[in-house]
Structure formats: C-alpha cells, structure tokens
User: Fold this.
Amino acid sequence: MSNELPRYVVNQVTSGDYDCPRKVLNFITELYAAFRMLNLRNDFLRKKFDGMKYDLRKVEEVYYDVKIRGLT
Assistant:
C-alpha cells in the first residue's frame, strides 16, 4: 500500500494540493513506527518494511521541496 503513496503525493502536488504531502508523511511515519516495533526477520513483511523506508524518503523529499518553495 505505501508504495503507491509517493506517486499519489506527486500527483496531488501537481494538481495544487500542497497540504497532501504533510498528511501522507504523517501517515507513513506512523505506519513505519508501528512496523519498527515488530520483530521482523527475513520474510514477506520485512520486504514490505524495507520498501516502506524508501517510500517514506520519497514523500519526505516532496514535502521538503514544497516547504522550501513556500507553497504550504
């Protein structure tokens, strides 16, 4: 699920919704924190967790770009 959110954020910013990156960033951060509490070994959830780290980074970059440009 989280792998679609960076694309969604970029599309929303392109259409003029500059508040969306903050909301999605908060959601992914909470989701990431919940996954960190689990003891994940080399299984399917571990792969999802690793992918979520990169998705979080992408959304952070979009949020940072919007914030730097003063669009929020």
DSSP finds three helices and no strands in the chain. The mean pLDDT is 91.
